Amino acid sequence: LVARMRPFGTTIFTEMSALALRTGAVNLGQGFPDTDGPAAMLAAAAEALRGGANQYPPLAGIPALRHAIVAHEQRFWGLARDPDTEVAVTAGATEAIAAAILALCERDDEVVCFEPYYDSYAASITLAGAVRRPVTLRPGPDGRYGFDEAELRAAFGPRTRLVLLNTPHNPTGKVFTPAELALIAELCQEHDTYAVTDEVYEHLVFEGTHTPLAGLPGMRERTLRISSAGKTFSCTGWKVGWATGPARLVSALLRVKQFLTFVNASPLQPAVAVALGLPDEYFTGFAAALRANRDRLVTGLTAAGFDVLHAEGTYFVTADIRPLGGTDGVAFCRELPGRGGVVAVPTQVFYDHQDAGRHLIRFAFCKRPEVIDEAVDRLKALT
Ligand code: PMP
Ligand code: GLN
Questions:
Q1: Distance between CA atoms of 142 and 144, rounded to whole angstroms?
Q2: From ligand 2's centre to the CA of 64, what distance in Å?
Q3: Which ligand 2 atom sits closest to the C-alpha of 200?
Q4: Counting CB atoms within 10 angstroms of each CB, which of 230, 240, 257, 278 has the fewest?
Q5: Is any ligand 1 atom within 6 A of the Cβ of residue 198?
Q6: Which ligand neighbours the alpha carbon of 28 most closely?
Q7: Is the ipTM, as predicted for this complex, more than 0.90?
Q8: For the Aminotransferase class I/classII large domain, which residue ranges apply (predicted)?
């Protein structure tokens, strides 16, 4: 293994899901739903499989899916794109993120990101030979995560190539505010950088609203916006994602993507096109169900003694383990399945400054209510 990849071990999601299987614990670790997505989408995939959509699709994705991605972005976020030149279908958001960074960063370029960060960010930046410049998200007295403006300003410099922004944010559940987004947009323009935005939880906002950075003045031309079907349509195993942006950035991404995977699962593409066209009620209903799950889990974790931080969106909520006598999230999560029959994920592994997250762990609530209740019952028995 090359030296630069040696610090990256097995991902925490793989480690914790294996622990869940081995111990029979309730798995609130890795973020995947335990129910299937919309029936119309599943039927369309089955039909496409049987109907012969089984050979290589076009590099950028089938036209029906590219049109559906554009129509969805226009409907929900008011962004206008050309489906022929401004959209690329990818193997999940993960490939889009990797291809974007590999396409835009020269060796030693710097990528400003927020920590805790989704684990593939650090690996993709390293694969590109670039350097991450993390800005720490810290919980405030109101239990909401924020960052220090001076720290963000200081992270930008002459080598900054791009900002990698995830909102709604995994693992904190933070939804970046309009003022925070305006500051990020200002800095991108002042330093003439690109932005790559990971918006896979775009429909899972329980308070406030989701705002794509690409929609802010001056940002459209410098932003690659990434999303994925996995979260919105409960099909994380399908790995159908996409990137949208100005043609020159999308074509740069495709230049790399053609040698990573070339193209992706053809029968799933018409199915995701169907899902993206579902009526508004699907999207609002899905968010309402997840919001109810969040409330259920937050109430339960609080009753079990955790100090629960505020999650405005995503599949996740973070909690402070110190009220339960924990000091180190990794040790706590390794013991929890045996001790309490529940799997959670320590968030400190998503920081460079690990002290900032040492006492925080993440629980996923994209699970059936009875599964959340079972986990809560077990956790209450801990104290
Ligand atoms: N970004 C974030 C913030 C995520 O949480 C995830 C999946 N959990 C991904 C990217 C990867 O998405 P995909 O499965 O579509 O590659
Ligand atoms: N994105 C999922 C999570 O945050 C996991 C994805 C993975 O296992 N790589 O839990």
A1: 5
A2: 28
A3: 1
A4: 278
A5: yes
A6: 2
A7: yes
A8: 26-379
- One pLDDT digit (tens) per residue for the chain, 383 residues: 999 999 998 888 899 989 999 999 999 999 999 999 999 999 999 999 999 999 999 999 999 999 999 999 999 999 999 999 999 999 999 999 999 999 999 999 999 999 999 999 999 999 999 999 999 999 999 999 999 999 999 999 999 999 999 999 999 999 999 999 999 999 999 999 999 999 999 999 999 999 999 999 999 999 999 999 999 999 999 999 999 999 999 999 999 999 999 999 999 999 999 999 999 999 999 999 999 999 999 999 999 999 999 999 999 999 999 999 999 999 999 999 999 999 999 999 999 999 999 999 999 999 999 999 999 999 999 87
CATH number of 39-276: 3.40.640.10
Residues with CB under 6 A from ligand 2: 11, 13, 30-31, 170
Give CA–CA dist 107/44, Å, rounded: 43
CB-CB contact of 111 with 98 (8 Å): no
CA of 241 to the centre of ligand 1 (A): 9
Instruction: Give the distance (Å) from ligand 2 centre to CA of residue 13.
Output: 6
pTM above threshold 0.90: yes
Residue pair 124/146 in contact by the 8 Å Cβ criterion: no
Burial class (CB in 10 A: 0-12, 13-18, 19+), 310: middle
Domain ranges of the chain: 3-37+281-380, 39-276
Centre of ligand 1 from the C-alpha of residue 100, in Å: 14
